[in-house]
C-alpha cells in the first residue's frame, strides 16, 4: 500500500466509517463500537485482523501495543474465504470480550500516557472520549497476495 492509498478499512460500510476517527491513514473506533465493526467487516466480505488500544485526543495519538488482539491467524488458511471470515468473526468477538475482561482500558491509557492525558483531562476532556481501538481488515485478494509474498501459499 502506498502512503496515499486508503487502507482496506475504507471499504467498510458508511455507517461504520461515520463512527471512526481517521488520522494518519488509520481508522480507530470507540470501545463500544468494536463488536459492530467486527460484524460489519464480515458482512462486507473482509477478514478481521485485530487491532490495538489507543489514546486519541486532539493533539496526540498513542498506542498501547500490549493491549491487542490478532484473531486472523487462528483460522486455517485452507478453508474457503467465506468460512474463514465467519470463523475469524467468532474468534474476534470472543477475543474482544476476553481482552476487555483482562484489561481496564482506561487504566492502561492512564498509565501509558500521563503526560498528554492529564492536561487533556484538566482542560475538561473526558477519559471515555480518549479511548479508541484500531481495527484492521483485509479482503481476500490482498490476503492471498500477502500470503504469496510471505511464501505461505503452496
Automatic annotation (TrEMBL):
Name assigned to this protein: Uncharacterized protein
Amino acid at each position: 500500500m502506498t502512503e496515499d492509498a486508503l487502507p482496506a478499512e475504507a471499504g467498510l460500510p458508511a455507517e461504520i466509517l461515520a463512527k471512526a476517527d481517521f488520522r494518519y491513514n488509520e481508522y480507530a473506533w470507540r470501545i463500544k463500537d468494536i463488536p459492530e465493526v467486527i460484524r460489519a467487516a464480515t458482512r462486507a466480505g473482509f477478514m478481521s485482523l485485530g487491532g490495538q488500544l489507543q489514546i486519541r485526543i486532539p493533539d496526540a495519538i498513542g498506542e498501547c501495543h500490549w493491549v491487542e488482539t490478532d484473531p486472523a491467524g487462528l483460522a486455517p488458511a485452507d478453508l474457503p474465504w467465506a468460512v474463514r471470515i465467519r470463523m475469524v468473526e467468532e474468534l474476534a468477538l470472543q477475543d474482544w470480550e476476553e481482552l476487555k475482561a483482562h484489561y481496564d482500558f482506561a487504566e492502561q491509557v492512564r498509565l501509558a500516557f500521563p503526560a498528554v492525558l492529564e492536561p487533556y483531562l484538566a482542560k475538561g476532556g473526558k477519559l471515555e472520549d480518549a479511548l479508541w481501538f484500531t481495527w484492521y481488515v483485509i479482503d481476500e485478494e490482498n490476503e492471498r497476495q500477502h500470503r504469496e509474498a510471505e511464501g505461505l501459499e503452496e
